[in-house]
Amino acid sequence: MLPWFENDQFPLYLAPMAGVTDVIFRNICKKLGADVMVTEFVSAEGIIQADDRTRKYTEFEETQRPVGIQLFGADGKRMGEAARKIIDWKQPEFIDINFGCPVNKVVSKNGGSSLLRDCPLLEQVATEMVKAVGDRVPVTAKIRIGWDFDSINGPEVCRILEDSGIQAISIHGRTRSQGYSGEADWDVIDECSQSVAVPVVGNGDISCGADVEKRRAETGVSGVMIGRAAMQNPWVFREAKEYLKTGTQPEPASIEEKWDLIVHHATMLVESGKFSAENFAMQYFRSRLMAYSKGLHRGKHLRIKFSKVASLIELKAIRDEYFELYSAQFSEPAL
């Protein structure tokens, strides 16, 4: 068993999210209580072709361990070759196979959730990946409960993956056709967890400690994975751990703490060297600001300003103006 599941531990995973869970954001979530990290998904072909941009997606810091590198593709042998290269470079704790991504550009290449429609190919990919990696690191997988409502096959896929040597399975409780709409089906996630002996990690609609406790108590999952809720509120990991420990929901992060993190996140991005100029870094950061604004008072007003921010100085000016104008109204509900 993977060590983070031993002794009845119930790990909190940060879900891999393209364009979101980079090194900087993973650092933030790790410090706030996330137990296990998984990188943004990486193209196996990009790794094999030694594409520098693709290789950057495999980067992580030692403090983020345990870390898994997530690969997508549809050729098990090529993916196995890519996995071996990654292990040589980075020595992650595990390699994760993406069988769940619903994005068209991935599905159109027969990757991600498209393999849920082709179980023989899915089995071949998983088996060849496990064989290629050998005993160097465990191989895990992430799936959805099915392609659409007429083909929910999560339990069957889990059994195939277990028989292929996959050592843990993360399951998003929506079909590919749902995308991120509707509700996650935790009944199917539970059925999946009961159908295999390997740990199953549930994913979908986890936004607070009470959600984590409910799924731990009512299903057979061995951990949970938190994605979109962390984009808005990375403190969700800290809050969830406190809830699991005490049974009470802790006070949310203060307005000051939220702004400190926003400015820190932006500063780290600008200083990372990932972008050739500060304005390009801040343009990239605007989407993160939109997510953060959902947890702030007067969020609608902030989003207008955030959509144009081009420098750290501008961001700090928005912060200072925010406190000056709205400090007396922080007791009102966030918008």
Features:
335 residues, alpha/beta, TIM Barrel, 2 domains, globular
Walkthrough of the structure:
The protein is an alpha/beta fold and 335 residues long. The protein has two domains: 3-246, TIM Barrel; 255-329. Helix content is 46%, strand content 13%. It contains 15 helices and nine strands. It has helices spanning 23-31, 44-48, 52-56, 76-90, 104-107, 119-133, 154-163, 186-195, 209-218, 228-232, 236-246, 255-271, 278-293, 299-306, 312-326, and strands at residues 12-14, 36-38, 42-43, 67-72, 94-99, 139-146, 169-175, 200-203, 223-226. It has an eight-stranded parallel beta barrel, surrounded by six helices. α12 packs antiparallel against α13 (278-293). The model has no long low-confidence stretch (mean pLDDT 93).
What is the count of β-strands? Answer: 9
CATH class term of the largest domain: Alpha Beta
In terms of structural class, how would the helical and strand content be classed? Answer: alpha/beta
What's the main sheet like? 8 strands, parallel, barrel
Uncertain residue segments: none
- What's the alpha carbon Rg, rounded to whole Å? 20 Å
Q: Strand fraction band?
A: 5-15%
CATH architecture label name of the largest domain: Alpha-Beta Barrel
Give the integer mean of the pLDDT values: 93
Number of domains: 2
